[in-house]
Design brief:
- The chain has 172 residues and is mostly helical.
- It starts with a helix and ends in a 31-residue tail after the last strand.
- It contains four helices and four strands.
- The protein has a domain of 83 residues.
- A hairpin with a 5-residue loop joins β1 and β2.
Amino acid sequence: MRSRAAGIVLALCGLVLLAADGTKPPVATNASEHLEVPPPPFSEGIFPCSNCHAGMTPDRHRRELTAMHTDIVLRHDETHRWCLDCHDADNRDVLHLASGEPVSFDESYRLCGQCHGEKYRDWRAGVHGRRTGNWNGAKTYLLCVNCHSPHQPRFHALAPKPAPRPPNRTMK
């Protein structure tokens, strides 16, 4: 019994020593934390959405858009998704999470992260997407929509280029 208690004390001392070196374990993202991001890449004249949508009664039925936004083709889990799954029906100038919580367009990463958790984790760590700044200080992240269309997020296939030619070297 005495050796078990000693083992527990040693383990606790080890944890105290680990904490004393200034390192911290990774912390879960705080939903209210705001990351530094550039503005979303809106099409010219499209935002704020309320300029056109003010006073409109939201049509919550899934359908092909024929009056406006006809250039948008939904290829993002289109069998299960509809515009109002992400865009807020009552306030078109914001998005909303699955819980209904409104999210500004410059925090759209929170919305994307609900379904794409691994990509979101990698994005936060600087492994997926682009992040600039200091490794141990202020950072600026590109939003998901800076690289991916939210309506068609897959990249189009790229045609391979020919292999580079080695430089001509003359032997002397």
